Amino acid sequence: MNFGKSKVFINFLSIHKKLSTRFNATKELHHLKYATLKLHHLQTCIDNCQSGSTKNKVRALLTNLDKYALAHDIIVRSYTALIETPSIERKKEKIPFTYAEINMLWKNLHVPYVDTILILLYTGLRINELLSLKLENIHLESKIIQGGSKTANGKNRIVPIHYKILPIVQKYYTRNSQYLIEYNCKPLNYHLYIFQWNTVMQALNI
Questions:
Q1: Which residues contact 93 (CB under 8 A, 6 or more apart)?
Q2: Nearest to residue 14, comparing CAs of 201, 154, 159, 193?
Q3: What is the CA angle 110-111-112, rounded to 5?
Q4: Contact, 122 vs 165, CB < 8 A?
Q5: pTM for this model (two decimals)
Q6: CA nearest neighbour of 139 among 106, 176, 177, 180
Q7: How confident is the model at residue 2 (pLDDT cuts 50, 70, 90)?
Q8: Percent share of the chain, pLDDT over 90
Q9: 144 φ, ψ to 5°?
Q10: Distance between CA atoms of 62 and 141, rounded to whole angstroms?
């Protein structure tokens, strides 16, 4: 699998994108001098963010900016601790793929990583489980995968290989490797995979 860019560069792009998004969310403050910002400026900026997640991320950005400003005598007081934001929900509802979205994935098998997403969808494996899946736990003759990691029962569960993804699993299995999905003879890094996942979702508008 050709990744095109190094892990360091890809991680840099991911971080840069996140920070740029958060910084752009504060555009209503950009015409003001940082030393003149008061609590009502910051709170209004936060309130204008659309989602609770964005509000918390922008607050984190402002907090780090305040730390820098205090350390360099740009400001004498920080207001970010007084900003009100919604509490972060512990559980996040999982939104399943629609039939149309699954069909979209099948029509775009030429796009890197799409086939691995289909493996996840048709096996029910979690991303970490797929990335740590060893060939010794894949039994093509029986069309099953033995694996899992979250619970004691999950570690030894038997997962059938759906006939639709069997050719995909076989494609990866034929390689001379220890893990089904590898990068430089090691399990693919989770954060790198998430970056590629998000790239696919954005490219296919899913």
A1: none
A2: 193
A3: 110
A4: yes
A5: 0.54
A6: 180
A7: very low
A8: 41
A9: -140, 155
A10: 56
Asked whether residue 87 carries a pLDDT value surpassing 50, the answer given is yes
Taking alpha carbons only, the member of 117, 177, 167 closest to residue 140 is 167
Return the percentage of the chain with pLDDT > 70, whole number.
83
pLDDT, one tens digit per residue, over 135-190 is 999 999 999 998 765 544 555 689 999 999 999 999 999 767 889 998 877 788 88
3-state secondary structure the chain: CCCCCCHHHHHHHHHHHHHHHHHHCCHHHCCCCHHHCCHHHHHHHHHCCCCHHHHHHHHHHHHHHHHHHHHCCCCCCCCHHHCCCCCCCCCCCCCCCCHHHHHHHHCCCCCCCHHHHHHHHHHCCCHHHHHCCEHHHEECCCCEEEECCCCHHHHCEEEECCCCCHHHHHHHHCCCCCECCEECCEECCHHHHHHHHHHHHHHCCC
CA 184 – CA 111 distance, rounded (Å): 20
Task: Enter the tokens of residue 67.
Answer: 């730390």
Place of tokens 């991680």: 11
Distance CA 131, CA 179 (A): 8
Please state, in angstroms and rounded to a whole number, the distance separating the CA atoms of residues 192 and 82: 35
